[in-house]
Amino acid sequence: MLKQLLTVVCAFGLLTACASKEQGADLYGNGKGGWNNDVNIMELDATGITKKFNKETTPVVYFAFNSSSLDASAKAALKEQIAWLKANPTALIVIEGRCDERGTREYNLALGERRANVARSYMVANGIAADRIKTISYGKEKPVVSGSNEEAWAKNRNATTVAY
Question: What is the second-level CATH architecture of the domain 48-163?
Fold first, then answer.
């Protein structure tokens, strides 16, 4: 009897583990829809929500060289994102800060972090719950565009919002 019970419990545990792996990470962890602190945002894959967000908003804001200040165009894009997030209250986001290839790795990681955080602060100040937003800096390590010219550098100086 004990052996059968143990077999059933083990089988249930195995099935549960496989089901959660197939469905992806449990992103929600605070009971209100915010991020689960155990989620590794670097391992997340795009979802239907990601595609919908990209189609219905401008997911990227750009920055001037060596800057983390939001200009009018960046604020307009963030206002679109904020409106979308208010209309989709269960969506969670990651803001990815990036830089062009110039500068040291350490400097660019710090600048990318400032860029992601300024976008996050703008969203929070405009009504998006802080626990729905995570940030990460890629610095110059994950460029959007390859190249060593002003056009490529301008596209890589950004904060990209990814919805889940």
Answer: 2-Layer Sandwich (3.30)
Beta-carbon contacts of 7 under 8 Å, excluding residues fewer than 6 positions away, are: none
CA distance 35 to 64: 30
CA 33 to chain centre: 15
Instruction: Quick: pLDDT tens for 75-86.
Output: 999 999 999 999
Backbone φ and ψ for 118, nearest 5 degrees, come out as -70, -35
Which of the two residues, 88 and 17, has the higher pLDDT score?
A: 88
Strand 158-163 and strand 93-98: pairing?
antiparallel
Provide CB contacts within 8 A for 87, sequence distance 6+: none
- H or E stretch including 151? helix 150-156
Residue ranges covered by each domain of the chain: 1-44, 48-163
- pTM, to two decimals: 0.81
